[in-house]
Amino acid sequence: MIFDPPEELERKVQELAELIRSSSHVVFHTGAGISTASGIPDFRGPNGVWTMEEKGLSPKFDTTFENARPSKTHMALLGLQRVGILKFLVSQNVDGLHVRSGFPRDKLAELHGNMFVEECVKCGKQYVRDAVVGSMGLKPTGRLCSVTKARGLRACRGKLRDTILDWEDSLPDRDLTLADEACRKADLSITLGTSLQIKPSGNLPLITKKRGGKLVIVNLQATKHVASLSSQTGWESWVGGFKPATPAKHVEMAGPPGRPAHPRLRGRGDDQADEAPGAGGARVDGAGGGGERRAGQGRAAAGAAEGGVPGPAQRHGSAECREGAAGAP
């Protein structure tokens, strides 16, 4: 791999900073690559899940999902949100690190689910747990919903299920709707650690470009999308604070206009974090430590509690997401 010299990297960082300064509605999209520094492997990187599987090897985890901590990248995103620069965050990751960083859930769409969240099939209430919920593929977890509509009334007692999607599952309505709306409002979409190959998640950032906004891609491997600026270096260098520990990320910036038409999707109900009987209490951790990864969904490489990574899923979505934008893989 070829890496940008420091002066070239600095120039491109300044260009990105100027793009952010001149934009009024910035949306970030995150994938597996931002969680490798947290000890969780990505998919297509040198030590990624699929790369290792092709070699007949098992992926190596440096931590468990419970012990993984948000990285400087996760915390930088939180900082950008708190100062009003980052308007919305769309993630394909299921590791829960954005929530653990303290990122507000009403500004976050977790398109493929969250290993620490279970949801009531009856009322839609969501519960954030201290440990992974123990199942994948939208299966029952064995716990019941404790929501009561009014004092003295019986609890909902609907069955709780995990939120991790399998290959054939559609993206959650609430998350996809919010992500789509954010991308259509955005004049700048920045993607970190995703090759944009999984649809329709990978097509969402292209909506911004199609509507005349800018698209920035930061990823280990080059993508199939036409770009006006590209660079290979560690994302950690862009965040600052420590030297690139992993090979590199490919950076692209792109433009062109267009016009999408997205059918409205139904909301999914209350997604507020809470506590239900028979499980650990709700928690949102502060962060520290290094961290970047994204575990997708679908088939599990190993048990979730042991840190196994489920593979990403092919999702259903809006007409525009399914078709993709020009140049979509």
TrEMBL record:
EC number: 2.3.1.286
Binding-site list for Zn(2+): 120, 123, 145, 156
UniProt cross-references to PROSITE patterns, sorted A to Z: SIRTUIN
Biased composition annotated in UniProt, kind: Gly residues: 278-290
Pfam family, one: SIR2
SUPFAM superfamilies assigned: DHS-like NAD/FAD-binding domain (SSF52467)
Coiled coil spans: none
Active site: 112
Top class in the EC scheme: transferase
Cellular component annotations (GO), alphabetically ordered: nucleus
GO BP annotations listed: negative regulation of transcription by RNA polymerase II
Keyword annotations: Metal-binding, NAD, Transferase, Zinc
Record's catalysed reaction(s): N(6)-acetyl-L-lysyl-[protein] + NAD(+) + H2O = 2''-O-acetyl-ADP-D-ribose + nicotinamide + L-lysyl-[protein]
Family listed: Belongs to the sirtuin family. Class IV subfamily.
Protein name as it appears in the record: protein acetyllysine N-acetyltransferase
Species of origin: Taeniopygia guttata (Zebra finch)
